[in-house]
């Protein structure tokens, strides 16, 4: 495999990130993943993100466990989220804006 030719433009929009991930997945040969596989990979990365956050908060962890870096794990979660959005043809920016319009009309109570 040769070095990637993909370029993410400066100051990318969410659509740019989503398009980049679509191209990245194809370039790396992961474009045949099933929905179930994507969700399992996404959840695995969420677990690694939680483990990294736990270590940063000095919450008990096995000293022999793998070292995770929170920023890298958050990036992995973001990548898989965008991959899932692409799989289901969800425009994440539009979905976010539509959902936030609904949420703005709700009355939020902390119980």
Please give the CATH class.
Mainly Alpha
Shape: globular
Q: Quick one: biggest sheet?
A: none
- Number of strand elements: 0
In the CATH classification, which architecture applies? Orthogonal Bundle
CATH topology: Helix Hairpins
Q: What portion of the residues fall into strands of 2 or more residues?
A: under 5%
CATH superfamily: MazG-like
Tally of domains: 1
Low-confidence residue ranges: none
CA-to-CA gap between the ends? 54 Å
Structural class: mainly alpha
Number of helices: 4
Q: Indicate the percent of residues in helices.
A: 55-70%
Average predicted confidence as pLDDT: 93
Order of helices and strands: HHHH
Rg, Cα atoms, Å: 17 Å
Label this structure with key terms.
111 residues; 4 helices; mainly alpha; Helix Hairpins
What does this structure look like?
With 111 residues, this protein is mainly α. The chain has one domain (14-104): Helix Hairpins (Orthogonal Bundle). Helices cover 60% and strands 0% of the residues. α1 crosses α3 (70-87) and α2 (35-56) runs antiparallel to α3 (70-87). 7% of the residues are buried. The model has no long low-confidence stretch (mean pLDDT 93).
């Amino acid at each position: 495999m040769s070095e990637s030719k993909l370029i993410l433009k400066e100051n990318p929009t969410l659509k740019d990130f989503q398009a980049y991930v679509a191209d990245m997945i194809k370039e790396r040969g992961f474009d045949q993943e099933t929905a179930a596989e994507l969700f399992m990979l996404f959840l695995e990365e969420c677990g690694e993100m939680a483990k990294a956050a736990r270590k940063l908060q000095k919450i008990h962890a096995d000293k022999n466990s793998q070292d995770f870096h929170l920023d890298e794990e958050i990036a992995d979660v973001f990548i898989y989220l965008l991959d899932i959005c692409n799989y289901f043809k969800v425009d994440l920016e539009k979905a976010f804006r539509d959902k936030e319009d609904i949420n703005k009309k709700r009355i939020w109570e902390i119980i």
